[in-house]
Specification:
- Mean pLDDT is about 95; it is low at about 250-255.
- With about 350 residues, this protein is α/β, with parallel strands linked by helices.
- Strands 2-1-3-4-8-7-13-9 form an eight-stranded mixed sheet, with helices on both faces.
- The protein has helices at about 40-50, 70, 90-100, 110-120, 120-130, 175-180, 195-205, 230-235, 285-300, 315-320, 335, 340-350; strands at about 60-65, 80-85, 105-110, 135-140, 140-145, 150, 185-190, 210-215, 240, 240-245, 260-265, 270-275, 305-310.
- The termini are far apart.
- About 30% of the residues lie in helices and about 20% in strands.
- Helix 7 (about 195-205) links the parallel strand 7 and strand 8 (about 210-215).
- The structure holds thiamine diphosphate, iron/sulfur cluster and magnesium ion.
Length: about 350
Amino acid sequence: MTYLAKPRWHHPTLATNKVGYTRRDYEGKISTLCAGCGHDSISAALIQACWELDIEPHRVAKLSGIGCSSKTPDYFLGASHGFNTVHGRMPSVLTGANLANRDLLYLGVSGDGDSASIGLGQFAHAMRRAVRMVYIVENNGVYGLTKGQFSATADRGSKSKKGVLNPDSPVDLVGMALQLGATYVARGFSGDKGQLVPLIEGAIRHGGAAFIDVISPCVAFNNHEGSTRSYDYVREHNEAVNRIDFIDLAKEIRCDPSPGDVLELPQHDGSTMRLRKLHADYDATDRVGAMNQVLAMQASGELATGLLYLDPDASDMHAAMRTSKRPLNSLGEVDLCPGAAALQKINASLR
Ligand SMILES: Cc1ncc(C[n+]2csc(CCOP(=O)(O)OP(=O)(O)O)c2C)c(N)n1
Ligand code: SF4
Ligand SMILES: [Mg+2]
């Protein structure tokens, strides 16, 4: 048996959200990952975020590539649409699905091997084309599924389980996402759910390409001394630059911030995000500044986490292509085929 279905019954007094679902309704099958794998904590954070935001499961499409990380969509949102693509190809399949039906919420789940090696080009073009999605890389620095080879995000000089030092420079997906034009860029840690859930909620509400790099230790192959992706290492070097006190208009304010250290950022859907600064000089709305600061922190051995960059005025691929507001998959032949005269006009304009 390759998977175990969870029993469907639950306690009748479990709390329901505004759309009538319990938290259990956002779960999936029983995970077959190793006990303690960071990826399972990310699945739990996604379940929490979707339940809290009252998202109807059938309005979600979750797509992934290949890897332990890419298996995880089977373990959350069991009532949503799902597509497990080929290794590294999640972004292009998701782009096509998004073009056909812009009304769904797209969750792209990938690994550091999936996105930083075979899928690097796909990752880059999804970011620069502003495909509206929540793109999560579950980053453990190794190819977990194929038994722990260094991935392209492993730090130079970090040690493998067998004691070999990595000679290569790392691909920094956060730096690339910033440089390529992603309009929401964050880094979280699977061991800090309090930080990760609001980062996912902010990404779900974002109106463009949202990228979250989640450091997610692999307990089987990369959790030893000398690794820079182990639980102990990340706990010691994790430096949060800010914290989202995300506010849904319909909900109560969750905190009472002191004035001056909180940024109020209106979102495209009418809600407001509150961003509490933990580093006084970190400006998450300045792309170039964010790139410099994240790099400087990295050089001094700190792993910057939090919402690293946000463009509150973000737009997406549909706006750029001026596609119809109605999803293309709901249009009939009359809308899609305007006739020979219209075609002749287009052809004439191109001569
Ligand atoms: C085209 C292709 N090449 C190689 C593989 C072998 N393969 C399977 S998973 C994987 C890497 C997975 O690493 P990552 O994306 O980091 O996921 P993790 O298992 O670490 O979560 C590779 C190389 C494959 N399945 N398909
Ligand atoms: S091999 Fe690593 S990444 Fe894969 S399930 Fe086990 S701990 Fe998780
Ligand atoms: Mg990996």
